[in-house]
């Protein structure tokens, strides 16, 4: 099984045709608003909008779950920890020895959990609906980020995909040598560290060869042209407008509900 | 051709070396020294020399990617089109050996465009060049085709197209076919010949296997191992000259008309079965479907078995499954009592200590299997740490194997610093140290020079004569013929037996 990070299965939704820079901007606006306040209303509005928009954005829910479940787990853990550790004000809902949940601590936990998801989803949507090459083109041409850096990162991403395969091969190659013979945890940890070291050696070798190949093709020599032009279209206006609307609605709803809770105050 | 803002003047370029040399930073001896030659525009040169004679270094220098003063020390003078190579960027196009690590982008069209972009070629002109270059190398795939989905030969032709889009006047090829199957070798060679005929570019190619390029080149330069140029002239003359020929043979170059001399033990009839596959389906992982179905094959003691077939057909997956490293997705893989000796019948269930005493799998890339920091530790690892043999036995075994595979001199060296041939010998030696009944090898002769090749064939033939079962995944018809035994061909999702080979005496 090869993991190809470079060619995500993109659907033909209008959103996937938007310029990555406008997607980035919309995601940034939404993220900032959610970050500003720890309350469950703004987070819920944003999360609901994100989930409702999935078909429009061309995000496959199953694919989203497959890639995003660790985040779901992290958000749940964060919510649980907050509910457990936050100040115990309000009525007691549950008590068992030192474990106490109160109305306010549970509300805080829910807010943290929803907020983590609301913040994480725009970034995941961006990755699921954007071709990395297009993203690099947009970052370099539209945001004028240094092309050496952007293209270097893009090439490195392709290597990451190769390294996933290499990790498997290394595992089999080392098993053939008898590594992993012992079942003790320390021996297992040692074997893992050894395999990780082997992977680093291979990664450095590949990266060095790739750098030579890129340099031989004139990379880094100075000014360059772009074979693919990164452009804006009307879709980008809608994407930006959507981002601002969602962020605005979330803030307004929270203020109206009286839950707006500015983080710096 | 429209507006063109390239820095370079198109057309074939000359190369001039005057007492040129290079010493890598931190090394005592120079990689190249005293190299002097003059190459006229459009000449096609094959660069030969013993491994370690500095062929790759010279090629990298001409491509302008050797680095600056911090990375080494230069002597003499080397110019490409009259310029220092680092100032002549884009005039020389370099294609390397490993298809994987020279791909930059995800789509074929973008990959070809990359070099032209870096030379600031205008957009419209870039796409003209992309289409032209792909046509030149005969790569007929859509521009948005994923580069990851290409075969090895296609990837190398893509790498060639990618440098062609820069309109180089000098093509530098560093063993571009060493990792390819015979069809891939042919594809790449033909593409290069076509491109040279059309563009008239100067060619400099490094390759052990002279026969591949003999018809394409019109000049051979042989670098001497101790520095300087050993021979320089038309292929027929250089390769026919007795002293030069003898030196090339000694250096492990595959000189046409010379077959490495083998002293093989007498072939004997194979013994009983060790491992039997019946209706075996093999898959790379549980999530992916089987690449081969219904494989029936017996591994006999005292028999060599070659698994042949095109790239990507599933040969390596079959070897990993037979080697007890991957679980079969269907069917039966059964060890006979002669092999399992009381362990489970299915090899994939064996503990590591049981596995290494029964089947040794030698991977294509030796570095994947190196675990320690010296050759001695590498050899002792299996017998001492896995098989837990008595110390006296470990010593005795390691001594014998090191001696037999000519590693005694290298026992204190770091495995990663060995030459390609030495790494291959070590990877085989580490597997033999635990005394397995079956030895599996994946492409053991890829990229090996003639000397290492002959050594490997001799060693494997001796193992077969000792009653081992030796299984090789290979494209190398010479290897299969020399080793003899049985052969199966993997193609179209299944396995067909090929006639039993008789070894050429």
From TrEMBL, chain A:
Main localization category: membrane
Subcellular location: Membrane
Transmembrane region(s): 24-49, 69-86, 106-128, 237-263
InterPro entries: ABC/ECF_trnsptr_transmembrane, ECF_transporter_component
Bilayer disposition of the protein: Multi-pass membrane protein
Keyword set, alphabetical order: Cell membrane, Membrane, Transmembrane, Transmembrane helix
PANTHER family associated with the record: SLL0384 PROTEIN
Protein name: Energy-coupling factor transporter transmembrane protein EcfT
